[in-house]
Amino acid sequence: MTDTRGSGGALAGVRVVDLSRVLAGPYCAQLLGDHGADVVKVEPPVGDLTRTWGPSRADGVSAYYAGLNRNKRHLVADLTRSEGRDLVLGLLADADVVVENFKPGTLERWGLAADDLMASLPRLVWCRVTAFGADDPLAGQPGYDAVIQAHAGLMHLNGDPQGPPTRWPVPIADLTTALHAFSGVLLALQERERSGRGQMVEISLYDAALSLLHPAAASYFMTGVPPSRLGSAHPDIAPCETFRSPLGELYVAAGSDRQFSVLVDVLGAPALAADPRFATNADRLRHRHELNAELAGLIGRLDPSTDIATELIARGVPASLVRPVEAVLAALELAERGMVAELDGLRMLGIPVHLSRTPGSIRTPPRAVGADVPREATPA
């Protein structure tokens, strides 16, 4: 991706103060920055905790931190001291958005209560990220992504049916929280155009994780049957499963009767489409194990020279070999589409939302703790 440090974006002119730490808040603020907002990240003197997670450069930018903190200026403020609080108050004086994820009561102890600041800065959009929200019995308690996955039932659904519950290997609760926070900020900024007033945007990791319980929650509400682990299978579609092929693990998702008919035709067993056990999706779900056995045999005996995934896709059946991450990130089309970028020697994922007139851009890399000089804020 071309370095477009001077370009605007859909959020050009929006000023954001990022007081958040770790993942959900910083990722939300990064998304705002990707689309042109002027984001100032304010860290404690020791830096964001994620600077210590995983491989790191000599300047204290870890790989984990780098994935969440581009397109930001990097300042330091000790909020337990008056000088640090004054710095933040100066930044807030001309800010449009603040993102924070402090435990309840922390900012109040430092004289930075949201209610007071929003009263004096009525256009300010305040984005608050918490673990469990304000009304949950666990309100105010810490909650990392894996704990939220367990608490919200996501972990219960993930893993082999005969195995233990398994953590999703990506921080799905944190990332989803960030996306909801991002959309909430945009909603509040849009509404401010009508009312002239900001508002509080609240999102918890727990609520965000609960929002991912589809179709498990919808099915349970309708039937009363508790959902269970299915491995890589789908609860409502068959076949939708991983099969071992001569070229590696193959995932096939034939969501319609037509797609199933094409699938078995490509596999050289068209009669299976007329088998009463497999005639409809409902039939295939009832006979899932018999169906999987039939397909496993057919796929396992394929000629190793047959690019079955490409053939199925070409005929309208969703399918893919299960690709390792390193192969995915090395694919040429990612760079061509801007989904792998490089800036100042640092490779990173790109911006997934592509706007035709005001595209996002990667302008500045993540930097060392306190690398930037505070800019004078406009008095309130």
UniProtKB/TrEMBL annotation:
The lineage of its organism: Bacteria, Bacillati, Actinomycetota, Actinomycetes, Propionibacteriales. Signal peptide: none annotated. The keyword GTP-binding does not apply. It holds the Pfam family CoA_transf_3. Keywords: Transferase. PANTHER family: SUCCINATE--HYDROXYMETHYLGLUTARATE COA-TRANSFERASE. It comes from Nocardioides panacihumi. Residues 360-380 are annotated as: Disordered. This is CoA transferase. GO terms for molecular function: transferase activity.
